[in-house]
Amino acid sequence: MGQKTYNAVVQATIKAGEHGPYAVTKCDGLEGSVTFSLVPPAWPEKEWPEPGSVVVLSQVHRKRAGWRANHSRFFKPADQQTAKSKQKGARK
User: Fold this and answer.
1) pLDDT at residue 47 above 60?
2) Which of 17, 22, 25, 64 is the most exposed place for a label (fewest CB within 10 A)?
């Protein structure tokens, strides 16, 4: 079975966090915010996301301060196709 992923919307990017740069997101299906590091390998993209960017989060776990994703990336057109395929399969 594949790794569970979550689509989330970036609320803010923090350039100088205590443990380095990170982003704060809101995600359907998880209560509260989800954060992720903007340093590889957690964020493999060349550019940082802006507020309003949609990202895909994986390896998500609960920490004392909230949810944390150990891997993240930009949402891409192929992700939209995958989501549509899953919706069609659920309707059958």
Assistant:
1) yes
2) 64
